Amino acid sequence: MAQRDATHDPARRSWVASANAPGADFPIQNLPLGVFSAGLAGPRCGVAIGDQILDLRAAVEADLVMNPVVKEASLAGLMAQGRAASAALRAEVSALLSEGATPRPDVLVPMSRARMHLPTTVRNFSDFMASYDHCARLGVRRDPKNPLPQAFRQLPVAYHSRASSVRVSGEAVTRPHGQWQRQDGSMAFGPTEAMDYELEMAVWIAGDNAIGEPVPMSRAPDRIFGYGLLNDWSVRDVQRWEMPPLGPFLGKSVSTSVSAWIVTAEALAPFEVAAPVQDPPCLPYLDSAWNRSNGALSVRMTAAILTPRMRAAGEAPFILTDTQFAGMYWTAATMVAHHATNGCNLLAGDLLGSGTVSGPEETARACLAEIGLTGPVTLPNGETRKWIQDGDEIVFRARAEAPGAVPIGFGECRGVLNPAIAWPA
Ligand code: MN
To answer: Which residues are catalytic?
Structure first.
């Protein structure tokens, strides 16, 4: 569990001037971790600060940072060391970048010159479905009397998704081919006609538990390395047809986009809030006093669309979803504890998706399947969208906000949808 300390002090400023700009995603209170490359040098770990990246390999070589694991080309080593190591790194980096410390522009790289990579090789990816409003809105169409999955209020429902197709923000997604049944009962095979996004929170795992060794709620919070944005690209026509009774398959494995920067659990300490009250109360193995008082996070999340016409006209992305992560029925800690109930070994760098972060407000529908329940959305330029069209770009952003704390941003998770390939002969 993260404590508030000097690194969260709202008065702390950085000698990196852009980090002090009001509304900056990456002030010194944030210090998210990622993997980048620039010029001819290969991938290495870095910390976002303002519009710069602190090169952690260079910082270790200059004796400014002590932990040599961050010289590696991925965050896997730091994730394996666990939360004590990431907390120590945070304290060190915060002191190094603080106003009053000797400025070291020689260990900075401008973000504009950097290319971002996946934070680690993702070995396992499980996707949850933790929003009451997402389940209720879509479930009403299936069964108005029982819109929720039967276990929804008893456990965080999830499925094992695909790790190999997790990609970093900025990489394009190609409209996939698939099979589905049309409304008239005839069969279809071809490029999907129902491409969707799901606005989700990514949860990155710290440390390992041996197979057979559950993770109780008392230890679950410390298994969370950090958070990011996740687009669970969804192929609705394929998904609807293939799902019963074993669950999602090709409708989900096409691609999953994650934001490049991981906002650490330490950085989010000031934004912990009480988890929503559950009715009925969950079983004791998914409950803890800490989870009830601190298990949720106050993070405002948005999803926006930029169509080719909007791009050509120089217009800003249009916000389709404006939602709040704190309202999720199940917290990240319960996802971790539940996942390991049977002794499943959660590995450092494993990825969990929170499920579509929909809220009760009309503006908080976090996928087009929900938005489209009341008809296609009309964009400011008059275009309409039922599903994502070729060339459309989906852009997620998020910001943690709390009284008395400097707000911190998550950067972006974006991806453009490219047209389908010609089916191979
Ligand atoms: Mn999902």
So the answer is: 134
